[in-house]
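The authors assume throughout that readers already know how a fold can be written as discrete tokens. What matters is that the chain and its backbone geometry are given together, residue for residue. A single example would do more here than another paragraph of explanation. For illustration, here is how one protein appears when written out as sequence plus structure tokens.
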Amino acid sequence: MPSGDEIVYVLRADGTCLAIDVAGRFPSVLHWGADLGEPMSDGIEALRTTSAPAVLNNAPDVPRAFTVWPTENDGWAGTPAQAGHAAGGATTPRPVLTGHTLRLDPRGGGVISLRFDDTITAIRGELTYALDPYGVLSVDLSVERDASVAPRTGSLPYALDGLRALLPIPERATELLDFSGKWVRERAPQRTPLGFGTHSRRARRGKPGHDSPYLLAAGTPGFNFGHGELWTVHLAWSGDAEYLAERLPEGAGAFTAVLGAGENLRSGEVILNDGDRYEAPTAIFTWSDAGLDGVADRLHRRLRSRTGHPTSPRPLVLNTWEAVYFDHDMERLAPLVERAAEVGVERIVLDDGWFRGRRDESAGLGDWVVDGDIWPDGLGPLVDLIHARGMQFGLWVEPEMINPDSDLARAHPEWILGPREGLGSTARRQHVLDIAHPAAAALVLERISTLVSEYSLDCLKWDHNRDLVEPVGRRGASDRPMVRAQTLALYAMLDELRRRHPSLEIETCSGGGGRVDLGILERTDRLWASDCNDPVERAQIERWTRLLVPPELIGSHVGATRSHTTSRVSDLSFRLVASLTAHAGIELDLSTASPTEFETIRTWTAMYRELRPLIHSGRTANADLADEATTLTGIVAQDGSRALFTWARLATSGGGQSGRVRWPGLDVDARYRVVLRDELGAAVRHGDDPAWISTAIDGGITLPGAVLATAGVPMPNLAPQHALLFDLTRLA
């Protein structure tokens, strides 16, 4: 709420607080973090009084400020909020506040809107802070060129080089966490100290990429899943991105460092003439004093509150890729459909290989016509069989790509994204289709939409298998960078498909986990976290994916005994248990399963249907363990009444005993019935179990929540690549 004379706006929600001073020369953030309590006039005034730092030697003669739109004119020598020029000039923006509003949400939080004029760059700017009831802060910036604001420079085109959302963080945030990775090893965490200078991570692949920074966190020393104070940022954008944490010797106003994100614009990509507008992607900021799990809880509750968030039970999926690859025909697939129905599958997705000329990855992308040689009667007979067995049907597509060996490429080579001087190398034998070209987008959209209607598709698996290299459009007099236009065209295409087919679900995939962000998740219902179904690798990939994305939106499939991507061999029980923490599915060829394996998989499908209401609504809880070769992953009901914990060993380690392991997220004042669910097969142990485990197997053991969550219990010493599943019920 505003303070007495309405010079400070305060938003409060779920233990979080944002205070912005809108008085004086330019607005600044007075506080972002823990709730300071019901604002009192003396408390607000104390924030303002203490907001100016010391004046240092060899420094400006007035205290340096870190404003909501930081510039060099304020004494800020770090990365500016806005960068650009008008024919080489107008490089020193000086936005001036022209208006501000506050709208409070009765559920908590609200919206602060600020408006600016800049007589140097002829820019009208808008900045909006929206704090939702879950304590998640969205920051939106936009600029519009208005020649009347500065007639001298307003007549010249303004090349926008960057527009970033930046927030200050305090001195106790001394450690950084972000992510890197590669194909089949996405979201690999990396930690660094927050030293002096700029920690900058840029995605320049035309999409976030398998090495996407994903989420940048700054926190107190040693923060982890269950402890520590953190400030994080994620860019809800599916194109090029920039994340940064910055610390200068002189600080940032009264704060020590800065956290921010924005679109990583390419030179010449955004040029504003009079009346043109640029809207930056939304930056999502989160504060938590409950570790990384606290961040995840806020983000998950935010996503689950959306009107378009999936609410129906997430169907058990069979995807045909690792079962048959390109070997498509009715004779090959009909037995797989029958076995899928018997085992309890609820949705079948026909993956790559169904369209014209598609016997391998070298041809057909862009045409999206059913291959009449393989399917002389179209896909109708297969779809009818799947529907007759009570299952849903989905189809794999890759609409943003084009093979040189395709009818579309031969008819419209100018629709291939790349420089007119000549295309670079293909990747995966494909180029990128310029879907920002209206005719190209219209053709592909119509073909995909026709398939949805003709075959009553329940879902699409929407893939994107290569980076955008030299992504320029061959239109007009010059090659113009097109990553932003391509991303917005993708969003428009997805939005239109969903408008035409409201019940259609879309799974986002990009060579696995190359496009995982909250921008694409606004338009899709599930993501494919990785092409790697190896349960050892998958456990870590999904663990970190769940930091941003709730389990019901993450596809997790059981693969073959020997992993397609790593060649690692693992027991069926381990593969099954490992996939019970997300939206489960099957990727193996059921027609080759032995009778015993088939019955075990049938048992697993029943367990998934039993447990998915909990898995897809609960809070994730990760134990902080000294032994990195082990994991204890939990999903706890919002009211604490039930929980599911997976204890897994991924590799050998030095210790022979686990010690007392604490189970996070449980009600310490309650008592829980703990049952070890061993229906999927016994995990191999090194030695005998702790004594309490035998009781947990034989009908269950009752333990106080304080013992489980605070003191901890000794755990079985498993052999590598084995896991146990514990089902907990709170007793009255």
Notes: The radius of gyration is 27 Å. Residues 57 and 250 are 10 Å apart (CA to CA). Residues 1-5 have pLDDT under 50 and may be disordered. The first helix runs from residue 41 to 49.
